[in-house]
Amino acid sequence: MIEQQLGFKLRDKALDQLETSRAHWIATARDVALGVCDAQGWVTADDVRRLFPIPEEYDGRVMGAVFCKRLFRKVGYQATAVPTSHGRPIAIFQALSQPRRVSSSHPLVTESSPTLTEDLGGGE
Description:
The chain has one domain (about 1-95). The protein has helices at about 1-20, 25-40, 45-50, 65, and strands at about 45, 70-80, 90-95. Helices cover about 40% and strands about 15% of the residues. The protein is of the alpha+beta class.
């Protein structure tokens, strides 16, 4: 439990540092993410990367700072489309300003989805 708390503190410190050092890029990426949410009801890091690529000199983990808890809620997972990420799961987010439900337009989620997650290929 103590190690987990330390992990959260280290994460929060890293995100705070990114907020300062990459403030302009993060703010613009958040605007892009909110625009995607307005258009389709949900957004992923892949959506933001496609529309507003991460600069080569930035570490890709900067995307974690984009989806802050004061603006977005995590509503599920899907496999990434980034080939070098080998299909790892990425979060599906919804803007907090939207009603608390996943848009039925998401290809992985139906109105009756109990868990809001996708089988990422680990089973049969």
